[in-house]
């Protein structure tokens, strides 16, 4: 999933080059599949909440969803909706979850004991979405009141995006409010051009979502984690926000993390010129074969996510634009054949991302809750009662249960000094 090139520049390729590139990518597809046994010693590959000290039950995680797709499945998921659609999904993470993985069944329906699964989902209109999110934020007393928005990349279905957002919330130990912005994708290697058009058409909707999040009463910081083509989409939305006079989302813009961004270096420079001094961090590796392919398609133009941060001149080029860069090359074994999803497949990398964005602040602990739990009617209350402890926040499905604290600083990733 998500293992192939995303970003700008495909229009410059000749049909012969495009066919050759796509054939090469298709050959690589058969090799995808990280070997988690080789990924460091981050809890022996297990997230902390899967330890023996945690009850043996699935962990509920809630995900706010803003979508520009017409629907969630089939042809509707590949088409642009005239207006954004909203929902609140309750997902569950299995007790034996391995950091860096998305547990799915080989066939049949997901089993909450073994797989990341959907427990329930409620469609919302725009006003309900804002009110529900405000309740979740205001009810987070003593914990993180931030929002993390995940924006996926090319070749991603609705279900894949929802599963990835859930995995990120779990593996980053994010105790704030998790949100997913999903846009129409052909979910097909050969749908690259169509996906780029869909991402372009979704810029205004993402800008509107970010603006609304910044206006949410009591919100802390609004963080963005964007992968590949989603990085281009996110930077375009932030650029539009800056042009509209809302450069920092009313003071609430937090970290902007671009994971393997498929953005042309010149385009990135123009985007940064508008949004700086935003706190932008690029996670990059020259081992990213998907971005190498994207660069080839774009007449060998450099992709931001494929710079070599070990080279002072490459690092200086990014830093001169006002962004930080983190070299994730040493973690490439988490996606050894493609190198494009290291940010989520490596427990060390996603744990470090969480450590950067998830630290609670003093003002959160002093806040007074205004949460009214009776406003939320869980469509699958009986099912949730089985997986959540009675009386816990998870049992009411009102907010994400705070996850375990991030792993020690030994897994922290810092930009080269």
Automatic annotation (TrEMBL):
InterPro entries: AB_hydrolase_fold, DUF900_hydrolase. SUPFAM superfamilies: alpha/beta-Hydrolases. Residues 1-29 form the signal peptide. Transmembrane segments: none annotated. Keywords: Signal. Pfam families: DUF900. PANTHER family: ABC TRANSMEMBRANE TYPE-1 DOMAIN-CONTAINING PROTEIN, TRANSMEMBRANE PROTEIN. This is Esterase/lipase superfamily enzyme. It comes from Roseiarcus fermentans.
């Amino acid at each position: 999933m998500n293992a192939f090139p995303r970003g700008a520049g495909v229009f410059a390729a000749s049909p012969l080059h495009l066919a050759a590139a796509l054939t090469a990518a298709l050959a690589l597809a058969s090799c995808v599949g990280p070997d988690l046994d080789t990924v460091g010693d981050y809890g022996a590959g297990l997230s902390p909440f899967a330890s023996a000290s945690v009850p043996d039950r699935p962990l509920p995680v809630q995900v706010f969803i803003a979508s520009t797709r017409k629907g969630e499945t089939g042809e509707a998921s590949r088409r642009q909706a005239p207006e954004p659609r909203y929902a609140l999904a309750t997902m569950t993470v299995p007790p034996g979850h391995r950091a860096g993985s998305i547990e799915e069944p080989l066939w049949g329906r997901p089993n909450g004991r073994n797989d990341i699964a959907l427990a329930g989902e409620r469609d919302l209109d725009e006003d309900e979405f804002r009110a529900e999110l405000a309740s979740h934020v205001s009810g987070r007393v003593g914990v993180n009141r931030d929002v993390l928005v995940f924006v996926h990349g090319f070749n991603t279905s609705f279900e894949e995006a929802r599963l990835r957002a859930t995995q990120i919330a779990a593996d980053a130990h994010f105790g704030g409010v998790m949100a997913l912005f999903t846009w129409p994708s052909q979910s097909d290697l050969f749908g690259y051009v169509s996906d780029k058009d869909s991402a372009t058409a979704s810029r205004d909707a993402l800008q509107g979502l970010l603006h609304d999040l910044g206006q949410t009463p009591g919100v802390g910081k609004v963080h963005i984690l964007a992968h590949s083509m989603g990085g281009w989409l996110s930077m375009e939305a932030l650029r539009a926000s800056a042009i509209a006079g809302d450069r920092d989302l009313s003071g609430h813009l937090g970290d902007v993390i671009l994971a393997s961004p498929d953005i042309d270096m010149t385009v990135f420079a123009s985007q940064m010129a508008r949004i700086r001094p935003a706190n932008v961090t690029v996670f990059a590796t020259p081992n990213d074969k998907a971005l190498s392919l994207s660069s080839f398609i774009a007449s060998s133009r450099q992709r931001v996510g494929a710079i070599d941060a070990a080279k002072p001149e490459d690092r200086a080029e990014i830093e001169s634009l006002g962004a930080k860069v983190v070299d994730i090359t040493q973690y490439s074994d988490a996606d050894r054949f493609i190198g494009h999803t290291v940010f989520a497949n490596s427990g060390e990398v996603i744990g470090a991302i969480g450590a950067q964005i998830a630290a609670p602040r003093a003002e959160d602990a002093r806040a007074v809750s205004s949460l009214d739990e009776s406003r939320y009617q869980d469509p699958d209350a009986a099912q949730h009662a089985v997986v959540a402890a009675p009386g816990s926040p998870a049992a009411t499905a009102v907010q994400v249960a705070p996850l375990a604290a991030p792993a020690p600083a030994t897994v922290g990733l810092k930009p080269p000094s």
